[in-house]
Amino acid sequence: MELGTYSTLLAPPTVIVRSRDQQQPPVADKPLLELVYQHFRDRPYDFEQFAADLWRMSEPNVDRIDVTRPWRDGGRDAVGEYLLGPHSDPVAVEFALEAKCYAPNHGVGVRETSRLISRLRHRQFGVLVTSVLTYVSL
Predict the structure, then answer these.
(1) Residue 138: pLDDT band by 50, 70, 90 thresholds?
(2) DSSP code of 86?
(3) C-alpha angle 77/72/37, rounded to 5°?
(4) Domain segments of the chain: what residues?
(5) In sequence order, what are the beta bridge partners of 66?
(6) Beta-sheet pairing, 91-100 with 135-137
(7) Which of 2, 14, 56, 69 is the most buried (most CB within 10 A)?
(8) Beta bridge pairs of residue 80
């Protein structure tokens, strides 16, 4: 290395974009997703409670989760705290959850994701739960 010349550090890309086929649920899960959709399609506010319960059951570090009222909720269907770190001294991080009861063939795209992102507050992360087996954590 000569004086005054620098070598740039290179990092390989870490973002892996899955194809549409890779994002599809397993064939065995499709009847269950259809059943969930049929049960909640006319009661989207009940789906919000279901989504909050599902998130709590699937993530053991969810400390608290409160479903918001169906109107004037700031676009968030539930808010809560997620615990990070050792069990003896955890740090609580706030999250906002949005629930969408979509038909199984409905996709989740930029619109839904950006809507959730726009409603996040400082130091919050977002969780989007849908009836189409899409898992997004922001």
Answers:
(1) very low
(2) -
(3) 35
(4) 27-137
(5) 79
(6) unpaired
(7) 56
(8) 65, 95
97-117 as b/e: b if 16+ CB within 10 A: bbbbbbebeeebeeebbeebe
Alpha-helix residue ranges (DSSP H) falling in the chain = 30-40, 44-58, 110-118
Tokens coding 14: 């870490």
Give the domain 27-137 fold.
Trna Endonuclease; Chain: A, domain 1 (3.40.1350)
- Reported pTM: 0.76
Return the amino acid letter for 90.
P
Contact indicator for 32, 132 with CB cutoff of 8 Å = no
Strands 135-137 and 124-130 turn out to be antiparallel
Tell me what pLDDT residue 137 has. Answer: 46
Q: How far apart are CA 93 and CA 84, in angstroms?
A: 7
Strand, coil or helix: what is 42? coil
